[in-house]
Amino acid sequence: MDSSDVGLDERKASILRAAVSHYVRSGEPVGSKTLVEHYRLGVSPATVRAEMSQLEELGYLYQPHTSAGRIPTDSGYRYFVDFWADQASLPTDEARRIREFFGEPRWELEDALRKTAGLLSELTHDAAVVFAPSLDRSVVRHVELISLAGGRAMLVLVTDTGRVENHVVWGPEAIDGVHLDHASEMLNRLVVGVALVRAAKTIAETLDRFPLELRGTVAAVADVLNEEMTKSASDRVFLEGTSNIVDEHKFADLGTVRHVIDALEQGGRVLEILVDEAGPRRLRVRIGSENPAAEMQLCSIISAAYGSEDNVVGRLAVIGPTRMDYRRGMAAVNEVSANLGRMLTGLEI
What we know:
- The protein is α+β, with helices and mostly antiparallel strands.
- The chain folds into three domains: about 10-85, Arc Repressor Mutant, subunit A, CATH 1.10.10; about 90-125 and about 240-345, GAF domain (Beta-Lactamase), CATH 3.30.450.40; about 135-230, Enolase-like, domain 1 (2-Layer Sandwich).
- About 45% of the residues lie in helices and about 15% in strands.
- A hairpin with a 4-residue loop joins strand 4 and strand 5.
- It is elongated and about 90 Å long.
C-alpha cells in the first residue's frame, strides 16, 4: 500500500509501522530512542521524536502520560492493518500444519468446527469463534428414518454443508422398519436438493401423497425441520480460547475482560456484529471503536467467511485486544477459513 494513500509521507509511515509493531510486542509505550535502536529508520532520535509528535497531532499515536512514550490509537492500528492486509502470511511450517489438520479423516461437522476454533485460538493466542453453517443457506442432502421402540423413529438429517442432525419423532405404534424405509425413500425424492428453509413447507404441501399410515410420522418430520430453523444463534457457535482474553497483560482492567467474555459467551451478540459481512469470502478487521457493540470497543475482531467462492456457508473470527498481533491474526484467519471451506465443499486441500 502506498503511504500517500492515507496522507503520510514514507518517513512517517515507517515510524508509525515500527511504533505499532513494537507496542504490539511489548505492551509498553514506545519512545523515539527505542525505535532508532530496534528499527532501521535511518534518522536520529530527535527526528523520530518530532515525527512522532506530528503523528500524534494527526491522530495516529497518543501519549498516555507526559513522561511516557506513545501508543497507537485505533487510527494508527487501522493504518497498520491496511498496509499489511495483502502481505500477511504464516511461516511455511504453520501453513502446512493447517493443511494437514484439515486433511485428517473427516469428523462430524460439530467436531470439526469445535476443533477449528481451538486451532485458530492456538495459532493467534486470542479467543476464536466459529459459526456453524447458516441453516437458511443449507440444502437437504439426505433424510433417513430409523425404527426405534414404541412407535418412535430416529430422523437423520444431512445438509450439503455436512451438518448432521438426529431427532426422535413419534408415529403410530404399529409402524415398522419397512414402512419407515418407504417413508425415507419418498422424503428423499421430495426434499433432497431443496433449501432447508423450504423443506418443511414442501413436505406439508405434499402430505396427501404419503400412505395414510405414514402421514403422522412424516408430519412430525416437517415439525422437526421447522424447529431447526428456529434454533437460536447461540446453538450454532463454537468458542475456544477465552482464557487468552483473561491474560492480565492484554486488558487494563478485569471489568473490561468480563464484558468481553460475556459478549463472546452469548455468541449471538458477536454474530450480530458480523452479520452484515455475509457475502464474498473476504477478510475483515474491525478495530476498537469500529465495533458497533459498546462492550467490544476495546477489542479488535478479525473475521472471514468460509465456504466456496459462490456459496458462503458460515463465518469465523478471532477476538482480542486492540493490541493484538494483526499480521499473524489476518494470516491465520485467511488460511483457516480457506481450508475449512475446502474441507466442507469437498475440494482438494
